[in-house]
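Re: that chain you flagged

S.,

Sorry for the slow reply, it's been a week of failed gels. I finally had a moment to sit down with the sequence you sent. For the record, here it is as I used it:
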Amino acid sequence: MRIDSRAAFLLSAAAALSACSDKAPPPKAEPPEVTVVTVQPRTIPYFYEQVGQAAGFRETEVRSRVAGILQKRLYREGQEVKEGDPLFQIDPEPFKAALDQARGALRQQEAALERTRNDRERIEPLYKENAVSRKDYDDARSAFDSAAAAVDSALAKVKEAELNLGYTLVRAPIAGIASKEARSEGSLVATSGDASLLTTISQLDPLYVNFSYSEAEKLQYDDAIKSGRMAMPGTKRVQARARLADGRDFAGVGFVDFADSRVDPKTGTIRARAEFPNPKGEILPGQFVRVAVDVGAFTNAIAVPERAITQQQATRLVLVVNDKNVVEPRPVTLGQRLEGEILILAGVKPGDRVIVDGLFKARPGSEVKPVPMQAGAAPAGAAAPPKDAAKPASAKK
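Prediction finished late last night. Pasting the structure tokens below so you have them in one place:
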């Protein structure tokens, strides 16, 4: 009986172990979810971005044209002035005296001219009657001509004195914003060097923004045009936009009106300039802005968000999800950065699904669950291309 009880116990234990071994294995883990973008060739406008510095459309140094004591400043520093407005008064008394002296000398010469004219008129009939010699006649004519020349010289001296007296009231040569005075009242001003500078006037509307681009960027741009990767726009004027230091987009649309024909040997850059309307004076001379120049559009271009690019040593990679949802690394050749995206010159083809988000979960050779990236999720770039820009314009080279 004891043997039968032990056998029954062993049989029940074996049945229990058999039941445990028949349980289903644990469920397989779901593949990680990643965000992908399906690349397709498209036309992408390209805005060349660079830091520029504003300068007045015209910046004029107001200088003294006569030497003397600066008596009075007639304008408010930093305020707008109109062309011809009086700015400074230089002591006019020495110049009034010089004018009076020049006028006195003119009257003397006019009296001498009148005397020599009378002498010539008296001697001419006598000479015709052979009552005087030819020498006397020639001397009378020569004296009259010399007196006439002296009168002309005296008239010029009077004109010069009048001009110098007029220069004692220094007027604005152009309209604009007058800067701080360079010489205080009571100072002795001269007609040359730093001693002649009184102030400066800057015309703010329109306004220039000066910037530069490198020789390498020019060659890269030329190569893109020649190879057909970029199309030059049909507009004749090159559009430009500006962004202020606080991140605000400047409302006015500018145009590139100058690009140098030589490379600066010191910096290896080419100077350029854009002209912007500035009716409200939002941009001041010397201010730094970020300028974006519309230089054309890349055609049949493939681009991905910058965050999709990874690096393995010196190789740039993207992770592509194949038709079996398996991750494949692809070495790529990169082009320009465009509004938060970057051009892919080689390494991917149209229709490839490139992983944008979830890169840390996507290991090469592993299975993933791709989710399309929502439209508009790509980050905007740091430059200031206009939201309503439909036609890019080419930059002068």
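What I noticed first: Residues 93-128 form the longest helix (36 residues).

Talk soon,
D.
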